[in-house]
């Protein structure tokens, strides 16, 4: 009878170890996904900052010279760990409302 209880205790211990291992793997997977989501939000904020810089640059150039138009003004952005560039495209006839397009990319 003692041997039977020892075998049952071993099986129970193995089962609990397997259960805790699965739980630990699921928890690690959740934390890895959360990290990737956080990186995405960080990247989104950086891209927004680069786009905002490009829009402000285009507004200032148009304020200085209302007839200024460009087919693609590209400028690099290097601020701390933020490295990237934006391209400004301003279309429309002089004197008419303009359309400003911004394309940006973060360089790793």
Question: Would you kindly provide a brief summary of this structure?
Answer:
The chain is of the alpha+beta class and 108 residues long. The protein is built from one helix and three strands, in the order H-E-E-E.
Keywords:
single chain; alpha+beta; 58% helix
Major sheet: arrangement of strands: 1-2-3
Radius of gyration: 29 Å
Described by its quaternary structure, the protein is single chain
Question: Distance N terminus to C terminus?
Answer: 66 Å
| H/I helix tally | 1
Helix content: 55-70%
Could you describe the largest sheet, including whether it forms a barrel?
3 strands, antiparallel
Low-confidence segments, given as residue ranges, are none
> Mean pLDDT across all residues, rounded?
84
Number of strands: 3
Pattern of helices and strands: HEEE
Q: Which structural class best describes the helix and strand composition?
A: alpha+beta
Strand fraction equals: 25-35%
What general form does the structure show? rod-shaped
Number of domains: 1
